[in-house]
């Protein structure tokens, strides 16, 4: 018996309203802030992610789905959303547009991770990128957009963490101090962190394993080792967040899991939750990334939010999801002649924009009305031999159990109005 591959999930009809609700709210919020939609392929040149994300990151080292196509090209299923959008920005000459260029997207991302609640090997993401401006006010505006998106979904009890991880000028000095701090503590470090110490020391702060948590808490803080430019940028960001009345907590251990981040990094998490999978949204600034990918030096900032994790938290918090706007009408019948009549009525309802479900298989009226109730129909139209003769039908309000006999034209008028 075939099953969905490990680490993937089917989004069944009962969960579809959550995803449609999130997508609609996300698109609406992004457009309020001047973002335009973009779509990129689900696979890209594997080198795009090796150069952008970083060869020593877990994503590239352990998690990417890489394959050769029939032409011999090395391709990868997209593991993160920023690099493809920046590739499109460079490829299509968007640097010639008024800056910043603001883009939002929905994408499927693929990572070979250990499956657990809220983390899948294929997951869906809402993300946005603002490219071409290094003003900290843009950072604050993006964070404001993400905050309003999440709170607008009805999610409460969330916390915003921020930090600055500096730039290529001030970070090397900080990394040296970080390595000195950890070098005498290897006996207390997990196996992965021992490797990170030599290859990518900033990732030490991203470790969520219990054995390393005390070390992370006492580690040197990047925000205390910033150059003048990065320090002013960080202070301005905090000032702008205060002006926007966005509550935040400074988290010196926040570095995010990708090598391309500079200066601002941020995450939004549910209150009280900890661990690698607590974040429901996160992002940061990547001022050197477009240059790494072959473009002209161009600043930018972006974020991503996993939709599966949002759905999980909406359910946990009992957030109310608006019901689908479309109301169903169930068409029931008794007798072969009435069945032919309902075929025509159902077709006409659909032509007029009314969602209609027709009963089939000549079941009893009791069985048909039971099906109507389970389908979520607001009204049922019932046609029997008597109604067939009088060119009428019974219109039944499913919630109140009230019904009346009307002409077909009268029923159509009522349903179109409703």
Produce the secondary structure layout.
Blueprint: H1 16-32, E1 36-37, E2 43-45, H2 46-52, H3 58-63, E3 66-68, E4 74-77, H4 82-91, E5 101-110, E6 122-131, H5 136-152, E7 158-164, H6 171-183, H7 191-199, H8 213-217, H9 228-243, E8 249-250, E9 262-270, E10 281-285, H10 289-292, E11 300-306, H11 307-317, E12 328-333, H12 336-351, E13 355-358, H13 365-375, E14 379-383, H14 385-390, E15 392-397, E16 402-407, H15 408-417
Parallel strand pairs: 1-5, 7-8, 12-13, 12-14
Antiparallel strand pairs: 2-4, 3-4, 5-6, 6-11, 7-9, 9-10, 10-11, 14-15, 15-16
Helix pairs in contact: 1-5, 5-9
Looking at this protein, list some descriptive labels.
418 residues, Rossmann fold, BirA Bifunctional Protein, domain 2, 8-stranded mixed sheet, 21% strand, 16 strands, alpha+beta, 5-stranded mixed sheet
Describe the structure.
With 418 residues, the protein is of the alpha+beta class. The protein has two domains: 16-170 and 226-317, Bira Bifunctional Protein, Domain 2 (BirA Bifunctional Protein, domain 2); 328-417, Anticodon-binding domain (Rossmann fold), CATH 3.40.50.800. Helix content is 38%, strand content 21%. The protein has helices spanning 16-32, 46-52, 58-63, 82-91, 136-152, 171-183, 191-199, 213-217, 228-243, 289-292, 307-317, 336-351, 365-375, 385-390, 408-417; strands at residues 36-37, 43-45, 66-68, 74-77, 101-110, 122-131, 158-164, 249-250, 262-270, 281-285, 300-306, 328-333, 355-358, 379-383, 392-397, 402-407. The strands form three sheets. The chain has an eight-stranded mixed sheet, sandwiched between helices. A five-stranded mixed sheet has the order 13-12-14-15-16, with helices on both faces. The protein has a three-stranded antiparallel sheet with strand order 2-4-3. The relative contact order is 0.12.
């Amino acid at each position: 018996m075939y099953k969905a591959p490990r680490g993937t999930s089917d989004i069944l009809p009962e969960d579809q309203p959550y995803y449609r609700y999130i997508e609609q709210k996300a698109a609406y919020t992004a457009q309020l802030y001047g973002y335009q939609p973009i779509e990129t392929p689900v696979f890209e040149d594997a080198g795009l992610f090796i150069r952008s994300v970083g060869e020593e990151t877990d994503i590239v080292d352990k998690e990417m789905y890489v394959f050769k196509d029939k032409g011999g090209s090395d391709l990868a299923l997209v593991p993160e959303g920023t690099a493809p959008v920046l590739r499109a920005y460079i490829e299509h000459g968007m640097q010639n547009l008024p800056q910043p260029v603001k883009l939002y997207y929905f994408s499927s991302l693929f990572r070979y991770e250990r499956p657990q609640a809220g983390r899948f090997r294929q997951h869906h993401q809402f993300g946005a990128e603002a490219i071409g401006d290094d003003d900290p006010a843009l950072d604050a505006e993006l964070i404001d957009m993400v905050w309003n998106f999440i709170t607008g979904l009805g999610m409460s009890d969330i916390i915003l963490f921020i930090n600055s991880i500096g730039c290529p000028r001030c970070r090397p000095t900080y990394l040296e101090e970080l390595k000195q701090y950890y070098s005498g503590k290897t006996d207390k470090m997990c196996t992965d962190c021992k490797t990170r110490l030599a290859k990518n020391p900033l990732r030490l702060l991203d470790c969520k394993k219990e054995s390393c948590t005390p070390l992370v808490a006492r580690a040197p803080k990047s925000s205390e080792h910033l150059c003048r430019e990065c320090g002013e940028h960080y202070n301005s960001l905090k000032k702008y967040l205060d002006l926007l009345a966005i509550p935040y907590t400074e988290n010196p251990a926040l570095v995010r899991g990708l090598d391309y981040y500079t200066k601002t990094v941020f995450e939004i998490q549910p209150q009280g939750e900890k661990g690698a999978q607590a974040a429901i949204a996160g992002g940061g600034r990547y001022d050197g990334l477009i240059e790494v990918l072959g473009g002209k030096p161009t600043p930018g900032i972006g974020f991503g939010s996993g939709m599966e994790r949002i759905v999980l938290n909406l359910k946990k918090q009992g957030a109310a999801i608006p019901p689908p706007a479309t109301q169903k009408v169930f068409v029931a019948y008794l007798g072969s002649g009435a069945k032919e009549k309902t075929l025509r009525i159902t077709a006409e309802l659909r032509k007029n924009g009314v969602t209609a479900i027709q009963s089939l298989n000549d079941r009893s009226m009791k069985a048909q009305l039971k099906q109507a109730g389970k389908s979520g129909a607001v009204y049922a139209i019932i046609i029997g031999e008597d109604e067939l003769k009088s060119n009428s039908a019974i219109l039944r309000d499913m919630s109140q159990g009230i019904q009346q006999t009307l002409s077909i034209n009268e029923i159509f008028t009522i349903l179109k109005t409703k």
